Amino acid sequence: MTGSGSANDIKDRRRSTYVLHKALPYWTWILPLLLFHLATRLSLAFQVDTGVSISYLPIPLGIVLCFWWGPARVLPAMYANALFSASLWGLHDVSEYPIYSLWEVLAVGISWLFFVEWRKGKPWLPDLKETVRFVLWVAFPASLCNGFLVAWGLVFFGDLAWDHFLVSSLQGVVATLYDTLSFSVPALLWFTPWMESKGWSKTNGAWEERETSWDRNRFVNLKKKRILEVVGVFLFCGIFGRLIPSIEYWFVFGLFVLWASLRFGITLALIANIWVQIITLIIPFLLGEIESFKGSKGGHDLVLLVDLAILCVVALITGRATSDTKKELRKRRRIEARLIASREQYRKFFEENLSANFIADGTGNLLGANSSFLRMFGFETQAEAISKGLADLFPSYDDYSLFLQKIQIGSQLESHEEFFLNKNGIPVHTTGNYFASLNKSGGVDTIRGYLLDDTLRRKLENQLIESKKLETIGTLAGGIAHDFNNILQIISGYATRMELGTIQDSSLLDASRSINAAASRGAIIVRRLLSLARKGGGSFRTIDINQLVNDTVELLLPTFSETIRFQKELGEESVLIWGDSSQLEQVLINLCLNAKDAMPDGGEIRVRSFAVKGTMIRESFPLSGPNEYICLEVSDNGEGMSEETKKRIFEPFFTTKNKAQGSGLGMSMVYGIMQTHEGMIQVSSEPGKGTSIRLFFPLKPLSLAHS
């Protein structure tokens, strides 16, 4: 099967080549003969001996046409032209024309075979190495065949003297080499893609990947400055060369060729070669400066040709090397540009990401962090964060070690909740994804983290849980209060009947009065429980908060000892809120009594009121609106509270006092009343530094449902 498939592939390729060969226009059979004749006519002008010219264009033309249309069309046309041209060259014996003409065809055929073998499967002059190989494998064999074979044939048939053989051979070799490099290479480079696009070539897209392909825009889009630069240097070389005595002016153009090779690469190096050939050979002949080359025995002309050929080869190789260097530089610049763009894109992604991103090593040292990370943990600069380190952000090194153990197990942690402390020791709750790079021993090399700040969400959740807990307790307390109130009414009723009855025993009468007094105290507790459960009702109206403070403090002053001092800091203007004055008075009394009890040896109670924007307290109360609030603050310099006590102060029946001093419902009632007034409470306290409680009331009127 494999062998059959390979044979079929070969047949298909041959068939496709034949179809493509037949698809070429018919004029491609006739045009080569005409082109060869014109090239021969032009070459006659540079004949230095019989059958020997310093520029023989049919050879490079044959190489190009063989590549485009194949040897089957080109070589017969070349042979026919050679037969016809033999008389033009002045050869003597007509019977020897067929054999003599074979040398020319043989030279092109051998050169074409070398060219096809070298070109097979390779891009056209891709680098300096292949350029040198082209000179050695294509141009040089064609030159040797044309120079030595043709000269030997002329000597063999008696049309050339033997003492002229070496000079004529070298002239043929150098001339063919020069013509191949200055004519074949530009023609193949520039016109092959155009011929392919027209369907006039059988190369079948062989040169599509070539960097130096024919591109009309390359010449159309040339900047005027570059054109003037080329023309200026070219004219300078010509004028300067003409003014220097004893130096052939064509030699100065070598500077231009080398400059063009170094400046613009292989493309303009080839153009420069053509211009030098035109300036040094064709234009002088047309202007009459060179009447004829015939009769020259090769001294001056051979030196001229050798110099031109060397110049052409050097220009070609230099241009290719320049193109390679520029190509490599362009490639390197493209890679560097892509690398810079990639780095910038990564930097923007890393820096502009809303999540806090960081990279750390296995020992806990930070290697890098974005701006979100710096803001989350309170750092001013990345250097400050790096000096602090990731391990230092954990509450303890044991916590960091536990984190390392977790990430080491699966090399990643997804949606992992972690607790940190920022640089000031403030708790930061996070949820993030962590990825670790492990070394061969299984240890952690680097850690990449992408964190989201959950501190606000945690605070909201805790507030919601606390609110629901207090609401549940309040509802339960309300139900208990209703049932307990019924029992109290029965007890109070029977005690009253006993007092109004005919009881003569004074001890029973005192007992009934004690029962009534206890029932009254129980009723007060019931009312407080109902207030906690928000079932106590209330009368809402406009209240001047400063006036409320003054009246309450004036009421409390006579009952407080002289060791307790009041300090009021109230605004000069009246501040109005919407609320129940009796409930708010009860709130203020409870807070002042708690402050007094926290200072058994005396102290200062400070009461102040001030306005505050909702946006300023949003960190503590995320659900606060943008409107203004009035803050009523009651603070003392007493014993203060621990964190555990602060968490429980709003729980019903929780108290730090003895049973005779309090029931534990005071702060619960404060919380319930603040909820009724759509207010918020903030508690700040440290053991030994006192307590500050802030009440925030909205300045806008409440809904009419509260009226």
Can you describe this structure?
The chain has 707 residues and is of the alpha+beta class. The chain folds into four domains: 321 residues, no CATH class; 101 residues, 2-Layer Sandwich (Beta-Lactamase), CATH 3.30.450.20; 74 residues, Helix Hairpins (Orthogonal Bundle), CATH 1.10.287; 166 residues, Histidine kinase-like ATPase, C-terminal domain (Heat Shock Protein 90, 2-Layer Sandwich), CATH 3.30.565.10. 59% of the residues lie in helices and 14% in strands. The chain contains 21 helices and 14 strands. Strands 4-3-7-6-5 form a five-stranded antiparallel sheet, with helices on both faces. Strands 9-11-12-14-13 form a five-stranded mixed sheet. The chain has a two-stranded antiparallel sheet with strand order 1-2. Strand 1 and strand 2 form a beta hairpin. The longest helix has 54 residues. The protein is rod-shaped. Keywords: ATP-binding, Kinase, Membrane, Nucleotide-binding, Phosphoprotein, Transferase, Transmembrane, Transmembrane helix, Two-component regulatory system. Its EC number is 2.7.13.3. InterPro entries: HATPase_C_sf (IPR036890), HATPase_dom (IPR003594), His_kinase_dom (IPR005467), HisK_dim/P_dom (IPR003661), HisK_dim/P_sf (IPR036097), PAS (IPR000014), PAS-like_dom_sf (IPR035965), PAS_fold (IPR013767).
Q: What's the number of helices?
A: 21
Q: What is the terminal-to-terminal distance?
A: 99 Å
The strand count comes to 14
Mean pLDDT, rounded to whole units? 71
Count structural domains: 4
* Rg estimate, integer Å: 53 Å
Approximate strand percentage: 5-15%
Describe the sheet with the most strands: 5 strands, antiparallel
Widest beta sheet: strand line-up = 4-3-7-6-5
Uncertain spans: 1-6, 10-22, 205-219, 244-251, 290-300, 702-707
Domain Histidine kinase: 479-701
Domain PAS: 342-382
Keywords: ATP-binding, Kinase, Membrane, Nucleotide-binding, Phosphoprotein, Transferase, Transmembrane, Transmembrane helix, Two-component regulatory system
Organism: Leptospira langatensis
